[in-house]
Design goal:
With about 280 residues, this protein is of the alpha/beta class. It folds into two domains: about 130 residues, Rossmann fold; about 120 residues, Rossmann fold (3-Layer(aba) Sandwich). Helix content is about 35%, strand content about 20%. The strands form two sheets. Strands 2-1-3-5-6-4 form a six-stranded mixed β-sheet. It has a six-stranded parallel β-sheet with strand order 9-8-7-10-11-12. Strand 10, helix 7 and strand 11 form a beta-alpha-beta unit. Helix 4 packs across helix 5, helix 4 crosses helix 9 and helix 9 packs across helix 10. The longest helix has 18 residues. The two termini are about 30 Å apart.
């Protein structure tokens, strides 16, 4: 499907972000900014790919490809299509990065966890005891792992469907967390926590935004599209410190650049400037 795509100018490597929907993605802006700063003539684009189409897409890639970023609904689907998967990504059931070696072998990585940690610590959140995570998908698993690494002992997961999110309770022992799983109807009864992470789309936040915002000493909104979500608005109106989704997007993308390109440190500030400019023009 993609082997016939032209290479970057000068025969550079190819990378891409896959997901569905994907037209809103800022990943091409961030990665291309990194390539410019690093003096690389690489190409990075977005492709709308469903979970069902993913095996065929991967099979059609030529040896010019170096890496892929994965978003909804592919973070679980890609795991069994990798030749090697890092232990953290395997545990969480969430892979958002695939890197190809010189023989075309696929290694799967999770850069969401270090992205969460870097975004939180950069905003002064370094020591947690409790956290509440809204949503029960792959990103929620990464948020749980990040909270654990920052010292959290107790995490409450609030999911629309407790049954579909039940796999997250299996992370309690390996992450050394006490995990409680409740549905949205329990929001009003939950005690406040050090951190609340919203991993649900903006379209599903309207009826619960104020409840979510009032549950945490700090609110982390994972979604960056749209830039301002109901949860972010509610947090700001309530005077609660809020971290926007762009912070996570930027930091996880920086780790991806390091993995795909093989550099020790991605040019984060160049990526940040390009991403914020693109957001301001939407």
């Amino acid at each position: 499907m993609t082997a016939g795509l032209p290479l970057g100018r000068g025969g550079g490597r190819r990378c891409a972000v896959l997901g569905s929907p994907i037209a809103h993605s800022l990943s091409p802006v961030l990665h291309q900014a990194a390539y410019r700063e690093l003096g690389l003539d690489w190409d990075y684009r977005a492709f709308d790919v469903s979970a069902q189409a993913l095996p065929g897409f991967l099979a059609g890639l030529s040896d010019e490809w170096r890496g892929l970023s994965l978003t909804m609904p592919l973070k679980r689907a890609v795991i069994d299509l990798c030749d090697r998967v890092e232990s953290r990504g395997r545990l969480l059931g969430s892979i958002n990065t695939v890197v190809f070696d010189e023989r075309g072998r696929r290694s799967g990585h999770n850069t969401d966890v270090p992205g969460f940690i870097q975004a939180l610590t950069a905003r002064g959140v370094r020591d947690l005891d409790t956290a509440i995570i809204i949503g029960g998908g792959a990103t929620a698993a990464s948020a749980m792992a990040a909270a654990a690494e920052l010292g959290a002992h107790r995490v409450t997961v609030v999911a629309r469907s407790v049954e579909r999110a039940s796999h997250l309770t299996g992370l309690a022992e390996p992450l050394r967390l006490a995990v409680q799983l409740v549905d949205f109807e329990a929001l009003d009864a939950l005690p406040a926590a050090d951190l609340v992470v919203s991993t649900i789309p903006a379209a599903g936040q309207s009826g619960i935004a104020m409840h979510v915002a009032r549950l945490g000493a700090c609110v982390f909104e994972v979604s960056y599209h749209p830039e301002t979500t109901p949860v972010l608005v509610a947090a700001r109106e309530a005077g609660v410190p809020a971290i926007p989704g762009f912070d996570l997007l930027l930091q996880q993308a920086a780790r991806q650049v390091e993995l795909m390109v093989g550099v020790a440190a991605a040019p984060v500030e160049a990526m940040r400037a390009a991403g914020l400019l693109a957001l301001s023009q939407r």
